[in-house]
Design brief:
It is built from 15 helices and 12 strands. With about 400 residues, the chain is of the alpha+beta class. About 20% of the residues are buried. The mean pLDDT is about 80.
C-alpha cells in the first residue's frame, strides 16, 4: 500500500507530506482556456462577487473575546490589549472592517492569509500592530521542522520572519499551507474569462461574423487586395456600413455564432461552477435564473450558507486568533467569538415570538433580550422568569391540597 501511495504521489494523484524546502511549489493546472492569475480572475464578475460576499460578510461581524469561568463556560467580555486592535484599528492604515476584508480576500483566493505581528514590552508580551502581508509576496519554507516565512518586499530584497511573528490562517491543505481555490479551479475560471472575452469581441465588432467573399472567377492578387480593403468594414467596420458586392460575389460567414458555441449556456454554467468553487449559493451573487428561490426560501438559503460555508471560516478564524494572539498558558481562560447572529436575524414578528418563548421558559432575562436588540437594560430586568401554569400532576395536587388547607384555616 505504501508503494502505491508513493507512486500516486509522484504523479500528483495524492496529497504528499511536506518535506524540507520551499512549500510554495505546488502542482498547477496547465491545460486552461487562457492563463489565470489573481488579477485576471478578479475581472470575472462571478469570482469578484463571490469573494466580495465572503469578505464583506465576515468583516462586518463583530469580534469579541470572553473569559471563561472554572467550568469552561463563557463569563464576561475580556478587557485584553489585543481586543483594542481587533475591535477598532489593527494597524495605522486600516480599521477593523478594512483589515478583515483584506485578510479574507487573501484567504478565500489563495487559501492562505499572513499577518505580521509586531510586539513590544517585557518579553514582547504586548501586541502593538497587526499588518497583513499579501499572499503573493510570501513564501513558506520548512527546514529541520522549523518554519520560516519569507516576505519578498521588492524584487531584490526579502525579509525572513519566525513562525511566532506571523499569524497564518490557512484553508485545508497539507498542514503547512492551504490549497488555493483559484489555482485548483483555474479551468473553470479560465472558461468564464474566455467567454467574457468572446462577448467583448462580438460587441466591439457589432456582433459581425468573420467570413469570406465567394466568387466564381479567380481574381489576381491585386484584385483580392482591393476587395479586402473595400469590403473590410463588412466584418470589422461600423455597424451602419452598407456593402455592395459585384453580381457574381456573395459573403459567406465562416465563424461560429454565439448560438453555435452555446455562449450563453457556457457563461451560465461558469457562474454555477465558480459559485460552487467558493461554496456560495449562486442566488446570493445575483443569479437571476434562481429568482424563484427568493421569498420564503431565502431564509433557508442564508441559514444553509451560514452553516456550511461561513461557519467553517468563523471557527477557523476564532481558533487561529486564540492560538496565535493569546499566550499558550491562557488558552483555557479565553475564547474568541465572531458574532454571526446579524445575518440570521429573522423578521421582527418572528423575533418577538422567539423572545417571548425564551423569557417565559427561563432561557433569557428581559435585559438579555434588550441587549440583543441594542436597547438599554432596565432595572429589575436581570431576573429569570418561569410560568407556573405547567407542572406535574402530583405537584398540582399538592398545591390544591395546600390551597384547601389555607381556606379551611381562614374559616
Amino acid at each position: 500500500m505504501a508503494l502505491i501511495q508513493t507512486v500516486a504521489a509522484w504523479f500528483g494523484y495524492a496529497p504528499r507530506d511536506p518535506v524540507d524546502g520551499n512549500q510554495n511549489a505546488t502542482r498547477t493546472v496547465t491545460k486552461t482556456a487562457k492563463p489565470v492569475t489573481f488579477d485576471t480572475a478578479m475581472t470575472v464578475t462571478a469570482v469578484f462577487a463571490s469573494i466580495r460576499l465572503l469578505a464583506e460578510t465576515i468583516a462586518s461581524m463583530p469580534i469579541d473575546l470572553y473569559t471563561k469561568d472554572k467550568d469552561g463556560y463563557l463569563d464576561t467580555k475580556a478587557d485584553h490589549d489585543v481586543m483594542k486592535l481587533l475591535r477598532y484599528k489593527p494597524n495605522k492604515r486600516q480599521n477593523r472592517i478594512e483589515f478583515m476584508e483584506q485578510l479574507m480576500l487573501n484567504l478565500v483566493s489563495d487559501g492562505n492569509a499572513y499577518v505580521r505581528i509586531t510586539r513590544v514590552g517585557d518579553k514582547n508580551s504586548r501586541i502593538l500592530s497587526l499588518d497583513i502581508i499579501n499572499s503573493s509576496n510570501m513564501t513558506v519554507i520548512l527546514k529541520d521542522d522549523v518554519l520560516t516565512y519569507r516576505h519578498q518586499v521588492t524584487s531584490a530584497f526579502s525579509r525572513d520572519f519566525k513562525e511566532s511573528d506571523i499569524w497564518h490562517v490557512k484553508l485545508f491543505g497539507n498542514g503547512i499551507k492551504g490549497l488555493s481555490p483559484l489555482q485548483h479551479a483555474a479551468k473553470a475560471v479560465a472558461v468564464a474569462d474566455a467567454s467574457d472575452d468572446k462577448v467583448t469581441s462580438l460587441m466591439r465588432n457589432g456582433a459581425k461574423p468573420t467570413g469570406a467573399i465567394m466568387t466564381k472567377g479567380n481574381p489576381n492578387e491585386e484584385q483580392r487586395n482591393t476587395l479586402r480593403k473595400e469590403l473590410g468594414d463588412l466584418v470589422s467596420g461600423d455597424e451602419t456600413f452598407m456593402p455592395v458586392l459585384p453580381l457574381d460575389m456573395k459573403f459567406e460567414a465562416i465563424s461560429l455564432t454565439p448560438s453555435d458555441i452555446e455562449l450563453l449556456a457556457t457563461r451560465r454554467f461558469s457562474l454555477e461552477e465558480i459559485a460552487r468553487m467558493f461554496g456560495v449559493p449562486s442566488i446570493l451573487i445575483n443569479d437571476s435564473t434562481q429568482s424563484s428561490n427568493w421569498g420564503s426560501g431565502i431564509s433557508a438559503i442564508i441559514e444553509a450558507f451560514h452553516k456550511f460555508n461561513l461557519r467553517p471560516y468563523l471557527e477557523r478564524l476564532e481558533l487561529s486568533m486564540l492560538t496565535t494572539l493569546i499566550p499558550r498558558k491562557d488558552w483555557d481562560n479565553y475564547q474568541f467569538e465572531i458574532d454571526a447572529d446579524a445575518i440570521l436575524r429573522s423578521s421582527r414578528k418572528e423575533r418577538v415570538e422567539m423572545y417571548n418563548t425564551e423569557i417565559t421558559s427561563g432561557q433569557r432575562t428581559p435585559n438579555e433580550v434588550r441587549r440583543a436588540e441594542g436597547w438599554k437594560p432596565q432595572e429589575g430586568g436581570d431576573e429569570l422568569y418561569m410560568q407556573l401554569g405547567f407542572a406535574p400532576l402530583n405537584v398540582v395536587a399538592k398545591q390544591s391540597s395546600l390551597d384547601q388547607s389555607k381556606d379551611t384555616s381562614n374559616e
